[in-house]
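Supplementary Text 2. Reproducibility record for the structural model of the 332-residue chain.

All settings were left at their defaults, and a single model was retained for analysis rather than an ensemble. We include the record here because the model underlies the residue-level annotations in Supplementary Table 4.
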Amino acid sequence: MAEGCFKTPAKPKGRTSKGIDVSGGKFNLEIPASPFLARLGYGTGVSVYSLDRGKEQSPWAIKKLNKFYRERQTVQKVCLEKEAELMRKLNHPNIIGFRSYTQTPEGPMLLLEKCDWSLLDVIEERVDKGSNAFEAWKIEKVAKDVVFALEFLHHTLFYMHGDLKSANVLVNGDFDAVKLCDFGVAVKMDEDFTAPAEEYTGTRYWLAKEVLEGSKERITNKAEMYSYGLTVFEMLSLSFPHMEDATDCSTSTETDSSFPEDEDSVVDESENSTLGTRPYLPERLAAFYAADKNYNDILSIYFLCTSENAGERPAANHLASSFREKMAAGEA
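Retained model, structure tokens:
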């Protein structure tokens, strides 16, 4: 990912946050100023940094507002507070772990478990190296772990993630663990699994047709299953959905001191008639997958979840049950 450009101060100045509450305990944690932290990634108005806590402790990730946004009462600030509140409830092996939320001289900070890299990074590295398709087990591992996270979100907490895509899926090691992250635009559902369509923001290329059309009717959890299908598509196609000419999937080019992007410079994706439909797999890869039965289940998930008809898409708990049956039979 793009790295921010900073000037090194003449005298390094650390930032210390005292009394951070983590798992019921209190301790002093020194958080260096942003220029002295390695940036892991960024989104609209926020950056994520790595915090090294010493040799005997695992590193954490720090999510913080960029300068323009932390000095104002912005949507981004509200989203970070909302994310912290929800993260406290998200105790699941396939969801990034919450560590703390604290106020510092640099504004509010959300401290989280740190993973090795995002699924987007993994895909981009594979493309850069000129590698062919992912092995079937790796795609199935991501599909399984993500749907377990969605099952918990949808059917236990009645939330939708709100922006499901490869950039918001994290990976440890060689797909040893897969975890969902970034809950700043999560959507609360009623117990009938519905929510107002306008509350589901997401990223347009990954949105289901019923969300894009701004239906007056409420959307269901099945809208998110379309985004899930397109996340599987990213691994199958080694590309982004509905973006044939795209070379960069990032949604922001901001640095720590930047202003919001100029809306006039944003491409009007609404003119793309393929949005909300099932994107085609590249012919070369489609032929490869068709010849290898190990990809059959993955292809079935992709086709089912990307149906334009929401009623035809499986719910997360149904897919999770199918994966558990495969695991019990020693097939996954």
